[in-house]
Prior knowledge:
This protein has 15 helices and no strands. By secondary structure, the protein is mainly α. It has one domain (4-16, 36-432): Amino acid/polyamine transporter I (Up-down Bundle), CATH 1.20.1740.10. The chain crosses the membrane at residues 41-61, 67-88, 132-155, 188-211, 231-254, 266-289, 301-322, 342-361, 367-389, 401-423.
Amino acid sequence: MGFESIKNSEASSSTHGLVDPTSPLLPPHPSAARLSSQPKTFANVFIAIVGSGVLGLPYTFMRTGWAAGALLLAAVAALTFYCMLLLVRTRRRLERDQDLSKIVGVSNIACFGDLGLAVAGPAGRAAVDAMIVLSQAGFCVGYLIFISNTLAYLFRLPSNPSPFLAPKALYIWAMLPFQLGLNSIKTLTLLAPLSIFADVVDLGAMAVVLGEDLVTFLAHPPPLRAFAGPSVLLYGVGVAVYAFEGIGMVLPLESEAADKAKFGRTLGLSMFFIAVMYGLFGVLGYFAFGDDTRDIITTNLGTGVVTVLVQLGLCINLFFTFPVMMNPVYEVVERWFCGKRYCAWLRWLLVAAVSLAAMLVPNFADFLSLVGSSVCIVLAFVLPAAFHLKVFGMELGWGSVAADLGILVLGLALAVSGTVSSLQEILSSVEVS
């Protein structure tokens, strides 16, 4: 939520990479006057990462235990930050090596897909593109699930056993014509002002939820558990990775930073702040409602005027963020099938597919775990480690090689096991419902 301008800039941003401040600087950015200061870079990282995944953290902490959830969140934040720096360092090395740049045919690495092309050729770009399509479409499925579940909670309709006629599905059907129209817009410039609205709503909603959580906990503290056992740890990892998904924005953000030598420090500070905020949000949400914590924490808050306005604001925000988040999907798919030409019917087909998928998923947090465990882990951990290892190769010390291989193996193991675990959770929820 609220990070559309960052995500959408991946295709056009010129880039420079810098992690090691002792290395020589690259030529100055041609529009240096418009580069981001450290405070602005900090804010951009916050906007790019914080999204709807935070609303599923209290339920996740209920499943894993509050201490286990907090530890998983911190570990995922640290590993995500490290892998972001691997991407920046890899790009800088490639752009500095003019000979290699000529060989792979890439002189300006503007985004994650360009980096994949530079490192592994067309197969590398295809792998990154496929993961971006799946992750972005997954986020949009999550948006529709949140909106429809929230509306079904606030404005109840008669129940129906069919997944395509259930109250949640009826709200998705009602949104479909409007989404087809919004997603037909060739340029998203007209939607850009909604970024400010999205940021205000995000922060306002979180503040309201935190305040309600604290009041509820102090009035009636429920029984709590710190650790729920190893069987649900994979579930927690998936949601945490989803919540910190932002690996695709790190290259555009770094290239727009005015002081690139301090980009790593600013990025680390942003990630630390977000991790603390996420942890507080998840812990207080679980502390307030205990085992009654729902998959979307805002539905625990009742139907007071303020909480209803917050929930409706979040729904409106995500409704208009949907076409912006789908834009990277359109860029990739239209490049694959239409020679980079605009294709309305292909966009409509994708919107319809995402809408149908949202109707079939019963639980918001379960779906977050599935997306996080599958494509987000590959994007955030596996590909950065693999690219870094291939580009630097034998130049790395044994410790760095071991770290890259460790992340690679861990990421693949978590992706496979976490995906299986999340699918089992979703299928069991379908059977119960």
